[in-house]
Amino acid sequence: MQMTMRWFGHGYDQVTLEQIRQVPGVTGIITTLYGTLPGEIWEKEAILSLKDKAESAGLFIAGIESVNIHDAIKTGSPERDRYIDNYITTLERLGEADIHLVCYNFMPVFDWTRTDLAKKRTDGSTTMAYDQKIIDTIDPDAMTNSISAQSKGYVLAGWEPERLGRLQELFAMYKGIDQERLFDNLQYFIKRIMPVCDAYNINMAIHPDDPAWPVFGLPRIVTDKEKLLRVISLEDDVHHGVTLCTGSLGTNPANDIPGIIRALKGRIHFAHVRNLRHNGPGNFEESAHLSADGSLDMFAVMKALCDTGFDGPVRPDHGRAIWGEEAMPGYGLYDRALGASYLNGILEAIEKMNHDGTLTGKEQYASE
Length: 368
Fold this sequence. Notes:
12 strands; 15 helices; TIM Barrel; about 40% helix; alpha/beta; eight-stranded parallel β-barrel; single chain; about 15% strand
């Protein structure tokens, strides 16, 4: 596996590439041309400049998160082909730049939803949290106002001002779009882009919905094992795959994440590995990556990834705000660096164990 961290770019991210380079075991970044609007064609010069910045810091671009999907594509409106053509041009340019992974989502309106971006935890840290009871008492405008007020002045991915300013328009666009139409529109998109993905060896990795259930009546189609398998069945092409996000899938405690990993063997191209703690039905908060701090078994997750032969990029995901760090909610340096080190520790343990949990002969000899 390739241990990576997400980086939003100069002018958007308070964390520097030089700091990321100092996290033990982290060799690459997951990034994007932040500020580029959905539907825009990425300029060659901008892609190469981004790549040069990473390489100058001793890192490489392991993948793009995200080349955002225009809503015309998600809703299947008449102009979708024009935006798919633009998307294909961007994929060609990424392939020419030797970048071969794109994480994306197909969520209507909101890329992710939280009701609190700085919930105080018992250890004194703050974290992002969700409570369905709060969602049930507010409307989308109230929620977006709350998120904007808690953003600390940062532009949050999926909550860009340009998007939030069109909230009523977006909800009108998705009126009448149910799960079946969303599946159909996803399949249309996938079939259009697969030839260029095959030509440039680009793995497309769809991200699960967050949280894993409908919010404000909007449909969700990437929420559990059954739906993920249906997504994969839309196109029999190895480049059509999944971003395995433990945090998004883990919002539903009924999801057996190691089981999902094994069911998707060979079609997981990217992994977001983080933990969260369930406080009750529809109520969760993001925790430290350590298994004991949350409700998910991080060892079991990493073991399943290893057992199925996953060798792509993995990154620690949302972190707590700790040690007085002022940062973009979920994306401070300190807790994500701890998460990367913890996950690397699990990987080292797995690699030095055989299937019955004992050290192999080579490691036994080295320990004597």
